[in-house]
Amino acid sequence: MDPIALYEQKLHQTINSILGIDGVLAKTPYSNTQIEILHAWLVGFFINDYEKYLSKNALPFDRKNLQITTQLVSEGMSSISVEVLSQYKTLYTKYLELYHFVPASVDITQKVNTLERLGLQIELLFNRLEVGHFFILSKMRSSIKKAFYEITIIQNSWSVPLFQENIDNYYFEQNGPEYDLEEAIEQMAETTLHQLGIQ
User: Fold this and answer.
1) Cα-flanking dihedrals φ and ψ of residue 112, to 5°?
2) Rounded CA gap, 5 and 187, in Å?
3) Which candidate in 37, 91, 133, 146 could, as Cys together with 140 as Cys, close a disulfide (CB 3.0–4.6 Å)?
4) pLDDT of residue 73
5) Which residues 6+ apart lie within 8 Å of 51 measured at CB?
6) CA-CA distance, 91 to 178, in Å (whole number)?
């Protein structure tokens, strides 16, 4: 079997896995919001896994994305674009800790290595945030800025549209810490946990 045929076979298997996620997650005790978060994270996982496979087979980036998108559309996911695929992957790579909430029945063969995070623990974010919050947060390159907004969303119960509006109005630049950044974020996180009665 030539590399392109192998690619097509792998693509079909992965897309089937993605499309089968809904049934798996429907059997979990999680809320609809949490299931949406896990669904998006798992799609990102499969896309990331795919890209590693494709890079080993030296397939060009544009061909890869075009074929993945075409296949997703043909399988009924008509709203998927290359940009959306990238968004799913970024959610996965920025929030690897969500791996802990994936049902054991989902076969993830790739080992996920997570690092200690700044600010609030992933459990609290998983319980309080929506998938839209995660998508916006995952675009942020600065870990300080991301942790600041995670805390602020929970402190102020920001909806996704309000969160985006505050970003557009440079909320962090006007209200974020100016010095001792990591220490300031950890203090904010501690205050938030106290307010929520968790500590």
Assistant:
1) -105, 120
2) 54
3) 146
4) 53
5) 64, 89
6) 27
Query: Do 117 and 69 meet the contact criterion of CB atoms below 8 Å apart?
Result: no
Instruction: Give me 112's structure tokens.
Output: 């996920």
End-to-end CA distance of the chain: 58
Give CA–CA dist 70/64, Å, rounded: 10
pTM above 0.70, yes or no: yes
pLDDT tens column, 105-126: 776 766 677 778 899 999 999 9
Among the listed residues 191, 177, 184, 196, the one whose alpha carbon sits nearest the alpha carbon of residue 124: 196
Nearest Cα neighbor of 30 from 131, 142, 113, 120 is 131
Give the pLDDT band of residue 47 (cuts 50, 70, 90).
Answer: confident
Residue pair 44/93 in contact (Cβ under 8 Å)? The answer is yes
The predicted-structure confidence for 78-89, as pLDDT tens digits, reads as follows 555 667 778 888
CA distance 137 to 95: 10
